Every structure is written in C-alpha cells, then in structure tokens.
Amino acid sequence: MRRVHFTGISPTVRVAPLLATPLAGCAGSPTLNVFGSFFPSWMLCVVAGVILTVVAHRILAKTAVDKSIPAPFLVYVSLTAAFTFAIWLVWLG
After folding, report:
1. What is the 3-state secondary structure (H, E, C) of the chain?
2. Using alpha carbons only, what angle is made at residue 49 by residues 72 and 92, rounded to the nearest 5 degrees?
C-alpha cells in the first residue's frame, strides 16, 4: 500500500475541507414568503414564543403561582425559549 505525503501543501489548505464540512447542511435559508417579502421564519417563531409566554404569565398570575417562582426572569426567558423551539419543531420540522 502506498502512502500519500502532503509535503507541498500548506496546513490551511489541508484543514479547509474539515472546516467547511459543517456548512454542507446550509443549502437553503429558513425564510418564508410573507406578503411578498421574504421573512426569517425564526423571527415568527420567537414572536409566537413571546406571545405564549405572556399568556402563560397571565395564567400563572391569575392562579397566584407566579409569587412562588424563585427567579421569575430566568423562568420566563426559559419559557420563551422552550415555546420558540417547540413551535420551530412542530411547524418547520
């Protein structure tokens, strides 16, 4: 078996294909056509996540559960992220 030596190739040229490999899945951008304008779909998911978090906050406030939350800011930011990711997975798969 014959070994191949890369003596004449610079290290950056040898590493470039390895660095570009994770970008192979970026074939298309996640945009939607909203009223004739392309809009990033993740922004719509974030807006829906914020709206669901506001609804959850109202429900927790009416049941007085929000008074027992130890770190409300972190809980509501986490709820926003969870709702956003759930909507992204359900809607765009």
Report:
1. CCCCCCCCCCHHHHHHHHHHHHHHHCCCCCEEEECCEEEEHHHHHHHHHHHHHHHHHHHHHHCCCHHHCCCHHHHHHHHHHHHHHHHHHHHHC
2. 145
| Torsion of Cα atoms, 54 then 35 then 38 then 41, to 10° | 30
Contact in structure between 87 and 49 (CB atoms under 8 Å): yes
Model confidence pLDDT, tens digit, residues 31-72: 767 676 667 788 889 999 999 999 999 999 999 998 999 899
Residue 33: C-alpha distances to residues 37, 44, 69, 84 (Å): 5, 12, 40, 20
Residue spans per domain, the chain:
31-92
CB of 83 within 8 A of CB of 41? Answer: no
Higher-confidence residue of 80 and 66: namely 80
